Amino acid sequence: MNAKCPVSNNSKLLRLLKPQPAYYLHNGHLCTEPDPRPPPPPAQDDESKITQAVQLIIETPHQEWSSSQPLRSILFSSPSPSPSFLSKITCSIASYRQALNFFKHLQQNFPFENTQFLSYPFQALVEQAGREVEAGSRLSELYQASKEWEIPPTVNTATLFIQYFGRLNMVDKSVIVFNELDPSLKSTHVRNVLIEVLLRDGRVEYALNVLDEMLQPLSEVPPDDITGDIIFYGLVKGDRKGTSLSVEEIIKLVLKFGKCSVFPKTNWLTQLISRLCGSGKLNQAWDVLRELLRLRAPLETPPFNVLLTGLGKNGDAKRMSTVLAVMRESDIQPDVVTFGILINQLCKLGKVDDAMEVLKNMGEGSGSDGVSVEADIIIFNTVINGLCKQGRQEEGLHLMERMRSMKGLEPHTVTYNCLIAGFCKVGEIERGKALFDQMNEEGVSPNVITLNTLVDGMCRHGRINSAVEFFIDMQGKGLKGNAVTYTTLIIAFCNVDNIIEAVDLFDQMLRSGCPPDAVVYYNLISALCKAGRMDDASNVLSKLKEAGFHPDIVCYNALLSGFCNKNKVGKAYEIIKEMEEAGMNPNSVSYNTLIAYFCKTGDFALACRVMKHMTKEGLVPTIPTYGALIHAYCLNGKIKEALKLFNDMSSISKISPNTITYNILIESLCKNNNVKDALSLMDDMKAKGVKPNTTTYNAMFKGLKENNLLEDAFRLMDCMIEHACNPDYITVEILTEWLSAVGESGKLKSFVQGYKGSEEVRKLLCFCCLLIFVQATMAADLHLQL
Question: Which of 85, 525, 571, 660 has the most C-beta neighbours closer than 10 Å?
Fold first, then answer.
């Protein structure tokens, strides 16, 4: 059955079937002439003649070429030599000057008037000129001469001129050559060469103008795959000067090319999708891929993997599923990277069971055509790590054994590190060490991450000495620690106030060539300040600066607090000055430290002045600010001033006092027999939703006892039970002594029995009963004695 192929006037096929025109020079433009016949290549037996001709040209002075009969017989014998024969001779002449003389010799002695025959040797001459040291001037002379001599260049000759001028940074000349070409000669190939030259020179706008003519719907010179490669390389990669198109403009170009059935290669498209995802433009990335699919682009997996990675980082699991579905519908096979991205994201989202389901299905025809994709060790490690992070270490162990037995994959260091980290996280240090021993037995080398995982696990669960011993043991076996190892140990010792060990490890760290980071310095300075070792703290501060770090505000505040606690106010002022010189303004903690110090020394005027300055700097006084002043006023018996500041705290600064602030005032009021005001403050606490604690009640019970206000005490005892505020030994001691003395032991028992569910209170009950029994016995003995 014969089928006709319909061909329109604008179809690519029709243009392909048309005979290609030859060219001649007309009014300074390269034009076509009908019925061209490209010159045949030189025959095999012409090779010896070419060699003879070149030898004669080299050996004979060019003034004698016309009289050289052997040379004339080769060049002008009948039948006439082919253009490619003459071109081959021109190419074989090593010297450009001789090649130019040879071409002029042909011009003067060629028996035909049609100069088209000389186009091919002229092309060879252009190639010779392009290799010259003075190529720029040679090519400019030749191009001008071609118009004077009316030598019609071939398409390749025009292309060579454009390319050579471009490489020589004579792009204006390239543009002139292109502009002077007859429109019929400005083929896709010629335009591709010019666009490449323009892009390399950063002339993006000009290049896009040339391209725009090619992208028109009815263009006679549509873009081809080479055009696409040139544009996508120059614009998507974006490493050439002048490449300033926005991503949106590049996307428009990609889609315009797509309408011409020209699509970016996988690597360029992947780079474009990566740029979009990297800048958070996930919607645009997905739109580009969908549109290319609609245009039937032959897309591959990598750009989809990049999009899936971006969606995964954004936590968009739903869209990831959509992308996978579209891939399958479009016969784009997910690969092991695709599944790795999906499983990794599911694990990060805590959907480990879903990740395990994907892993299970991978070997069961997971591809759209039923092709299996085998999971690799990375995917297994991802799932094992996800299980361990959820506290499912046993399942992780089981998966490792299944991987080993069913897939033939041997666990490596990362596998064991995930499992060890999982067991250490839940405090099963021995299980972690057992896995460490197992990996050594199996010949799997632990690395510094293994070491750091175990050291960190031991430190986090109070086994700091064991961590040090393990570290020393590993060092002896050649597994050296790094900055993370030392940092973990130093911080652990700082947290338990073991400054001696922390400093010793810090010195070891410096000697071992592991430069401490800023975190180590900050923690060590803070611990030394807390321990009151300000000289050592200052020494570490100097080392911090020598290492190229700058103290942060937390570090400065630790030093400020340390010097204030040591009553070294001069040093504290130096710290403030250094902060300001470093361009770092004191914060609320800095001011609170100074206010607390001046309150402690009884200098209320200066403390208030610091607080005013704090407000002037735009910092709002905090609860600790007011708390320090209120506490200091109370300690010095200035209750009125304390209460005024307390009222200002709510009315002026709009800061709600907390339980601690109330406790300071209530305790002070009770000590000064102002129990009624203390009770009023407790009512105020209730009105403002501030919950009293055991300390609050204990202060009140002491004040009520001193004033023998039983009914108020009973009311507060009921409130304690109602609000589930557990009494402590101080509460029981106060109430036992008081209520037993006034014959209200039964009320005390009822009070304690109100906390039946509390183990701690049951112990208090026993203590209370014992106290009552002892007191009753002592009273009976006294009565008998009387």
Answer: 525
CA separation for the pair 70, 347 (Å, rounded): 85
Give dist(CA 491, CA 514) in Å, integer.
16
The per-residue b/e assignment along 56-86, b for 16 or more CB within 10 angstroms, e otherwise, is bbeeeeeeebeebeebeebbeeeeebbbbbb
CA distances 394 to 333, 389, 390, 422, Å, are 34, 12, 11, 9
Q: What is the pTM of this model?
A: 0.62
* Residue 779 located in a structural domain: yes
**How many domains are there within the chain?**
1
Q: How far is CA 765 from CA 274, 734, 750, in A?
A: 69, 14, 10
Q: How far is CA 104 from the centre of its chain?
A: 65
Domain that holds residue 773: 726-786
d(CA 157, CA 602): 97
- pLDDT tens, residue by residue, 534-589: 999 999 999 999 889 999 999 999 999 999 999 998 999 999 999 888 888 889 89
In a domain, 363, yes or no: no
Residue 751 lies in a domain: yes
Whether 336 contacts 373, CB under 8 Å: yes
Residue 733 inside a domain? The answer is yes
Among the listed ranges 15-19, 409-413, 483-487, 764-768, which one has the minimum average pLDDT value?
A: 15-19
Task: State the SS3 of 444-498.
Answer: CCCCHHHHHHHHHHHHHCCCHHHHHHHHHHHHHCCCCCCHHHHHHHHHHHHHCCC
Asked if pLDDT for residue 15 goes beyond 50, the answer is no
